UniProtKB/TrEMBL annotation:
Protein name: AI-2E family transporter
Keywords: Cell membrane, Membrane, Transmembrane, Transmembrane helix, Transport
Family affiliation: Belongs to the autoinducer-2 exporter (AI-2E) (TC 2.A.86) family.
GO cellular component, one term: plasma membrane
Keyword ATP-binding tagged: no
């Protein structure tokens, strides 16, 4: 068979594989979530496997079952605690009259317009009120929250199947840490099994450290933001919602903290429209920005070096560019998945394309 025939077969095979992935995307999503949950729960399983009850080791299946129950307990408590607060916050924000809100900020808006017009090179009056009205309306448009939860309530059957499937798969991944790797190896030629197994083991170890670290980073950042904002005078329910959002969006390096800070400042303004802007709102915004600055300082010095240096092993500029590319292609979701995907890419490149100088330089820090 000539070279063109081989390329044609390869292209058809990739297309067919892509169609299979698309058709079974829901099942693949279940497996992906189960893999992440098994990564987060693996330290608990390992700890339980080392424990003994009356000198008898705990069976692996029991350790996996207890870990799975603990994971779901944490998630149930999380949703039971925070979802009502988020819904209530959304209702309050959706009831804000944007036009009245902008009118209450009329004086500071005029000062900003005057400042911009004074130093603008284009000349003319700059009208920021229309810009604020348009963007604030989109930010505070939470009226669809109730319809979203209504649609979720209408898909209880599908949700139950998803939860059961994820739980079932996660249990076996927790019980046998090599099950996922062994399953994937079945789809590669025997002559490539050793290399593929080495790649999958490296990916598993790196991503396990990454997701475990990320899980604790989200909790710690969200908790610190919540405590800090409560101390500086933000209402507790508002502080919790802002802290939750800041912790989750913080999984996007560099850009996530900026988004979290802007969200906190917007909520700070939107929930204090009935007080004097200069004497009360401005100090609150200043303290809010200070809280985010201190939290990010702690995160950058303590948390992120432990997470990224031990898992990604990549230059900060690499990570930043990868996140920008992923964001331009897939938005926020792409940014969140950028680092795991880049980690997988680098491990595969190191194993199979290490003869190229560019690849060697790109992957030299991967052990």
């Amino acid at each position: 068979m000539n070279g063109k025939g081989k390329y044609l077969i390869a292209a058809v095979g990739l297309l067919f594989l892509g169609l299979i992935f698309w058709y079974f995307s829901a099942i693949l999503a279940y497996i992906g979530i189960a893999v992440v949950l098994s990564f987060i729960g693996r330290p608990v399983v390992d700890f339980l496997n080392k424990a003994t009850i009356k000198k008898h080791p705990i069976p692996t299946s029991v350790s996996a079952g207890l870990t799975l129950a603990l994971l779901w307990l944490v998630m149930v408590v999380f949703f039971r605690t925070f979802i009502p607060m988020i819904v209530e916050e959304a209702k309050q924000l959706s009831n804000i009259d944007v036009q009245s809100a902008v009118r209450s900020l009329d004086e500071p808006i005029r000062n900003i317009e005057a400042f911009i017009s004074k130093y603008s090179t284009e000349g003319g009056d700059f009208k920021i009120q229309a810009v604020i009205t348009e963007n604030l309306s989109s930010v505070l448009k939470f009226s669809d929250i109730s319809s979203i939860f209504g649609s979720l309530a209408g898909t209880v059957g599908g949700l139950f199947i998803a939860l059961f499937s994820i739980s079932f798969i996660t249990f076996f991944f927790l019980k046998d840490s090599s099950l996922f790797v062994d399953s994937l190896v079945l789809f590669v030629p025997e002559k490539n099994e050793e290399g593929v197994r080495h790649v999958l083991d490296s990916i598993k170890n790196l991503l396990m450290r990454y997701f475990v670290g990320l899980f604790f980073e989200v909790i710690l950042v969200g908790t610190m933001v919540t405590i800090g904002l409560s101390i500086v005078g933000m209402g507790f329910s508002h502080a919790v919602v802002i802290g939750l959002f800041a912790g989750l969006i913080n999984v996007i390096p560099y850009i996530g903290p900026i988004i979290g800070t802007m969200f906190g400042l917007i909520i700070g303004i939107a929930t204090n429209l009935d007080v004097d802007f200069y004497t009360q709102v401005v100090p609150l915004l200043g303290y809010t920005a200070l809280v985010f600055f201190i939290v990010q300082l702690i995160d950058n010095i303590l948390f992120q070096p432990l997470i990224y240096s031990n898992s990604v092993n990549a230059h900060p500029l690499e990570i930043f560019l990868v996140i920008l590319f992923a964001g331009s292609m897939s938005g926020i979701l792409g940014m969140m998945l950028a680092i795991p995907a880049y980690t997988i890419f680098r491990v595969i490149a190191k194993e199979f394309f290490n003869k190229y100088r560019f690849v060697r330089k790109l992957t030299e820090k991967i052990k």
